[in-house]
What does this fold into?
Amino acid sequence: DTEVTQTPKHLVMGMTNKKSLKCEQHMGHRAMYWYKQKAKKPPELMFVYSYEKLSINESVPSRFSPECPNSSLLNLHLHALQPEDSALYLCASSQGLTSPDTQYFGPGTRLTVL
Amino acid sequence: DAKTTQPNSMESNEEEPVHLPCNHSTISGTDYIHWYRQLPSQGPEYVIHGLTSNVNNRMASLAIAEDRKSSTLILHRATLRDAAVYYCILRPLESGTYKYIFGTGTRLKVLA
It folds into this structure.
């Protein structure tokens, strides 16, 4: 099973709301990733967790708060977002070993901020 | 970070081979080359990867130049289901973790 699941599929929120995106994998992978993808652009890396510890934060604004409760789950907590944060948010996972460490992506959550 | 350069779009006829090029002139010796594709409304899907030698799998072939400054993804017989955006990706090591640096992608259109 090479599946990464993401919920919800779609999310509409106001600028004052707090919401969370959820990502799950059961492949025994120890590295998990959040990406942001705007229309007609490639995915941009936001965060990387390696063995449940945050290893990369690509200077993401604090209104995005990642959390890795265990090796199978990855959350992205959203608070006080701006309309320009509307995008497809992708989760991925990989074994977390040295190489080649292929990443497997979920289908994404389409976020709209009003 | 090393960068990749890809054509914005390409067209192919169904049942014909497709060669998708990628330039990565600043690639370092430890960077793997990965290719993914993204169909509409889906996450990126792994296609193939390589380091120095040419690679084949059931989906495609990857031809890597001897100096590693460019590579070509080869779809042997394009079908309508192969219409997607194809990303050439380098994978540098940072903070003990491999991260993907996506290229801008090539939108492949397959004509029936």
In short: Chain B touches chain A at residues 32, 34, 36, 41-46, 49, 51, 87, 91, 94-100, 102-105 (CB under 8 Å). The first strand of chain B starts at residue 9 and ends at 13. Chain B has no helices and twelve strands.
